[in-house]
């Protein structure tokens, strides 16, 4: 019942099949070779043309299987592994055509009935298939083109609109915590809430908390804030909103060496300052001052927060924060704090045990025991907001986890002015994204925010599982960039990383300062930064 076609050019597949027969579920190419003594460069070119041709006739969910002899592929799966320049670089070549390597396994000729290898140097002669690998490629999510986005919200009984920072356009309204979401961040939030409701009288705050705040931020580094300045009374028209031409000034796109306050003074003297919320802690303070606030009840609320930060697999410009607030009589704050932390720890540990056999430890450590350089970006910013007594730290005992230990939460104890007694507020905040990454073995925060549907398919009906990457051994590309620093102005590392995120669409995996130079006499300074570009969820050519 099969149709067999001969003399098909693998680099021009669409020329041999009618449009109705171009949606192949699988394309197999066993041991491609140009013939005779062709070198690695010519065989790479053959593969490149084959992958481009396959992209034109493959179904959207289809697979391309390429079997290569031992060492040819150039991936860590090859044992022994050739030097990169001496391999066929199959993953990088496939990425140029929009494919990612989703699986790799041994090629066993004996398991295929009637198969025999032949064609060694274009002759009727077999070749060695011992150690050969079958590489399975799938389509990558195509690069998304994001148009400027304008949000209109209500803030303190007035409507304001603002242009979303470009680096956040694909993250601002993802709805990970909404009722119909099966994202692991929501699953962890729901299971934590359910567990704590067994130990405390609990009330969930689920009304909308504004994404934007207004006013002065004291004690917080301004370079970590997504600032927005909007002229008062200039609410955009419907046409402007639709076209993205709202009259908002976005200071994450302005001269990043300068303080936002300076930009505000020069760019718009009559403007009021706004910023995307970097924390939910101010809402916790507002709740304790509400007339409906009941001491002894644990209040829980969550939502995305926004912070500029340096580029690393575990530092994210947006994440979901979960905050717990409870007021108790002075003298019982230690027992309340311990009860809250113990329940959070036991809940997270039980979630981890459901998905992994590796050991997870969660410890409460005094904030004073950390040097500033030891804090991750989450903990460093939390310590700027207000005084922290303890950090909640998670450590995974696993050989394949690059971030074995990390601060994922902060615990605070502060006086509270409530009538009828001497009250103390115990509060805790959790970075739900970091918790999800450590529980599910996700090694890059960008995977949590991927638009590739294969990510959420691994977590059906809100289940938590160990994550299995659908893009193995993604290629990386290293580029150095050197530039002079403005005279007399310090280098804002966070702002530079934010620009790199923006212009590459989050394709930068790391940035390192590899050299500093100061010109004798003039004193001018320059930096050389090494950028490593790599996508964990999509093809990068």
UniProtKB/TrEMBL annotation:
InterPro entries: aa-tRNA-synth_II/BPL/LPL, BMT5-like, Fdx_antiC-bd, Fdx_antiC-bd_sf, SAM-dependent_MTases_sf
Molecular function GO labels: rRNA (uridine-N3-)-methyltransferase activity
PROSITE patterns named in the record: FDX_ACB
GO terms under cellular component: cytoplasm
SMART domains: FDX-ACB
Gene3D superfamilies: Bira Bifunctional Protein, Domain 2 (3.30.930.10), Ferrodoxin-fold anticodon-binding domain (3.30.70.380)
Protein name per UniProt: FDXA1 protein
């Amino acid at each position: 019942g099969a149709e067999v076609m001969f003399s098909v050019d693998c680099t021009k597949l669409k020329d041999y099949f009618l449009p109705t027969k171009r949606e192949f579920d699988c394309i197999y190419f066993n041991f491609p070779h140009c013939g005779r003594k062709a070198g690695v460069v010519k065989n790479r070119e053959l593969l490149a043309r084959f992958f481009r041709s396959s992209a034109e006739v493959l179904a959207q969910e289809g697979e391309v299987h390429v079997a290569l002899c031992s060492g040819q592929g150039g991936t860590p799966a090859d044992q022994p592994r050739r030097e990169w320049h001496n391999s066929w670089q199959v993953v990088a070549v496939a990425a140029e055509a929009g494919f990612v390597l989703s699986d790799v396994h041994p090629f066993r000729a004996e398991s295929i009935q009637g198969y025999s290898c032949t064609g060694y140097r274009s002759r009727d002669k077999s070749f060695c298939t011992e150690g050969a690998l079958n590489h399975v490629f799938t389509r990558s999510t195509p690069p998304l083109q994001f148009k400027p986005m304008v949000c209109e919200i209500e803030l303190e009984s007035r409507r304001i609109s603002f242009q979303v920072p470009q680096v956040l356009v694909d993250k601002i309204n993802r709805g990970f915590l909404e009722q119909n979401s099966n994202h692991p961040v929501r699953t962890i939030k729901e299971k934590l809430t359910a567990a704590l409701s067994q130990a405390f009288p609990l009330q969930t705050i689920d009304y909308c908390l504004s994404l934007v705040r207004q006013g002065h931020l004291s004690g917080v580094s301004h370079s970590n804030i997504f600032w927005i300045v909007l002229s008062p009374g200039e609410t955009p028209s419907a046409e402007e909103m639709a076209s993205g031409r709202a009259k908002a000034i976005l200071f994450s796109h302005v001269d990043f060496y300068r303080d936002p306050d300076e930009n505000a003074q020069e760019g718009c003297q009559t403007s009021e300052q706004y910023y995307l919320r970097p924390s939910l802690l101010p809402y916790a303070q507002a709740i304790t001052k509400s007339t409906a606030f009941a001491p002894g009840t644990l209040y829980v609320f969550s939502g995305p927060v926004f912070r500029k930060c340096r580029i690393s697999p575990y530092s994210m410009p947006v994440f979901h924060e979960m905050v717990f607030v409870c007021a108790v009589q002075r003298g019982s704050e230690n027992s309340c704090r311990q009860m809250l932390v113990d329940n959070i720890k036991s809940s997270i540990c039980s979630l981890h045990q459901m998905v992994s056999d590796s050991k997870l430890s969660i410890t409460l450590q005094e904030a004073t025991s950390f040097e500033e350089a030891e804090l991750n970006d989450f903990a460093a910013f939390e310590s700027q907001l207000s005084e922290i007594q303890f950090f909640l730290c998670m450590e995974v005992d696993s050989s394949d986890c690059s971030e074995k230990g990390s601060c994922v939460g902060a615990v605070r104890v502060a006086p509270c002015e409530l009538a009828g007694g001497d009250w103390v507020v115990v509060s805790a905040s959790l970075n739900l994204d970091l918790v999800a990454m450590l529980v599910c073995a996700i090694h890059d925060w960008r995977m949590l925010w991927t638009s590739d549907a294969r990510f959420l398919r691994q977590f059906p009906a809100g289940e938590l599982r160990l994550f299995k990457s659908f893009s193995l051994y993604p290629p990386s590309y290293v580029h150095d960039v050197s530039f002079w620093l403005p005279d007399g102005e310090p280098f804002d590392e966070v702002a530079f990383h934010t620009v790199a995120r923006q212009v590459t669409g989050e394709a930068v995996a790391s940035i390192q300062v590899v050299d500093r130079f100061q010109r004798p006499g003039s004193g001018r300074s320059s930096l050389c930064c090494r950028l490593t570009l790599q996508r964990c969820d999509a093809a990068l050519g």
